[in-house]
Amino acid sequence: MEDIEDLLAGGVGDAPPGFRLPLNAVGINPKTNKSKRISSKPDQITASNRDSLAPPSMKIPGTQTIYIKTFGCSHNQSDSEYMAGQLSAFGYALTEVPEEADLWLINTCTVKSPSQSAMSTLITRGRSGKKPLVIAGCVPQGSRDLKELEGVSVVGVQQIDRVVEIVEETLKGHEVRLLTRKTLPALDLPKVRRNNFIEILPINVGCLGACTYCKTKHARGHLGSYTVDSLVERVRTVISEGVKEIWLSSEDTGAYGRDIGVNLPILLNAIVKELPSDQSTMLRIGMTNPPFILEHLKEIAAVLRHPCVYTFLHVPVQSGSDSVLTAMNREYTASEFRTVVDTLTELVPGMQIATDIICGFPGETDEDFSQTVELIKDYKFPQVHISQFYPRPGTPAAKMKKVQSKIVKQRSRELTSVFEAFAPYTGMECREERIWITEVATDGIHLVGHTKGYVQVLVTGPESMLGTSAMARITSVGRWSVFGEVIETFSSANRETKSREETKLPCSSNVSTCETCTCSAESCGEERSGEACNISGNISGQDDNKGKSKKEEKEVQEVVVPGSSVANWGFIDKALVCGVFVSSVTILVLLISIACRVLLR
């Protein structure tokens, strides 16, 4: 079977991402041997008999309905949003009801056995329902010969910009396999966000680590970072689209840029310069392993103190025992992890840190586990993700001598009991906190907001409050979140900014600041190109403007629009008007003269 790249006729493969390739650009080779469906060739399209599936849809491409299911991390969620955006842009409808769909797109996760088992169950269900299937994500990329992937289309993590082509061919009854890693997918692809107010921004793919238990490295590969300029441009774009939270996503945020000669602090400082000064959009820094932030702790702490950055960081430790960390090849010690936590807690007021623990890693003794329990007790982390060890095929840890299953489960239960006994939010009652509201709670009653420390606050209010910031008084605390009541909102600043940006009024020569019009950074003398002008320096200033009548607002606009007064016209403008007037009079005289001659005959 030829490589798919050789089947794409003369340059068609360079078609813009998200657009369908011409039908004559894709070669189809009939398949003669069903047992050879799983090929060593990473990229191919083959015809499939699909004996167990319904006949391929005869509808016009782009008119079918697609169901997308996502497993795993925020990076996977971002990939799904990009794929959904391209499909939607091409005309496909998206549904959350599997039975309504003409095709299922399943974006998979290979971190843990349960998530891969859930994928297998969903594939079986899809086959039973005779649904064409496209499997994306880390499972097909890292385990391309998996039996469950036989007879279905697969797309790799760096081929998501070709999802329209893959879906179209699959709906025709063809089996598509695109797994070759090439350049990073563009950040400006069409995107349909699961939450309109949250942008998940991948800053790099892969990592520099070689953890012995990790299967994700097999799928995402070595570190590949986006440039600072491309990420900053994406931040500008999503802010203009109304996004209120930007999540930096990565397999290891701390390793960012080491492959292109920059580092995480350089990126963070560039991004925070673009965030609106009224704190209407917040930045959340993604998961970072200890080794790569140890040398930048003070710089990262400075960014975390920024008013537009959540004082929250996810730093996985995995174990409190150095011997276990060595067996995991984590490249740091428990003491170094403590240095990260102690330094950030000291330098960043209200700092909140989440961590991960793997219970029952091969070779873990009772003493090793007790050191882990001691670490968790010492810091009383508000969030701890506790997992039992799952051997992942193809990883070094899968060949190590395992701890007995009953001991692993016992340790997991013990550590969970220790963690759940903490009361991290005690003392927050009656405190007033600024929160950013971005989603509806699962109970369908409350809205979900987060404090600057990313503590979840549940409040009641209309859904029109989504995407706003507010002051909330904490009324009670629970184990996982706190409850509050809104006492003041800060939504007017952003809405006024958006309204003025939509009018696109240029700056006049008599305007000395950016507070009265929408303008470019260059025309306002800003150093940062493309930075949005701040209409109002503070909330009180906005409140003062609310008292203006519509007549007064109209008068202000009439002042700032150049060319709205004859006195501002130049010599050329006046000469053109005079010329038009003279021409009109001449034509009128000629018409009258012709009319008179006709009447006198």
TrEMBL record:
Start and end residues of each MTTase N-terminal domain: 64-172
Keywords per UniProt: 4Fe-4S, Iron, Iron-sulfur, Membrane, Metal-binding, S-adenosyl-L-methionine, Transferase, Transmembrane, Transmembrane helix, tRNA processing
Main function: Catalyzes the methylthiolation of N6-threonylcarbamoyladenosine (t(6)A), leading to the formation of 2-methylthio-N6-threonylcarbamoyladenosine (ms(2)t(6)A) at position 37 in tRNAs that read codons beginning with adenine.
Organism: Arabidopsis suecica
InterPro entries recorded: Elp3/MiaA/NifB-like_rSAM (IPR006638), Methylthiotransferase (IPR005839), Methylthiotransferase_CS (IPR020612), Methylthiotransferase_N (IPR013848), MiaB-like_arc_euk (IPR006466), rSAM (IPR007197), TRAM_dom (IPR002792)
Listed name of the protein: Threonylcarbamoyladenosine tRNA methylthiotransferase
Record field: catalytic activity: N(6)-L-threonylcarbamoyladenosine(37) in tRNA + (sulfur carrier)-SH + AH2 + 2 S-adenosyl-L-methionine = 2-methylsulfanyl-N(6)-L-threonylcarbamoyladenosine(37) in tRNA + (sulfur carrier)-H + 5'-deoxyadenosine + L-methionine + A + S-adenosyl-L-homocysteine + 2 H(+)
Pfam families per the UniProt record, alphabetical: Radical_SAM, UPF0004
Annotated TM spans: 580-600
Region listing for Disordered, in residue ranges: 30-55
A cellular component term, taken from the record's GO annotations: endoplasmic reticulum
Polar residues bias: start-end ranges: 41-51
Cofactors named for this entry: [4Fe-4S] cluster
EC number: 2.8.4.5
Domain Radical SAM core: 193-425
Ranges of residues in domain TRAM: 423-488
Family: Belongs to the methylthiotransferase family. CDKAL1 subfamily.
One Gene Ontology term of the molecular function aspect: metal ion binding
SMART domains on file: Elp3
First-level EC class: transferase
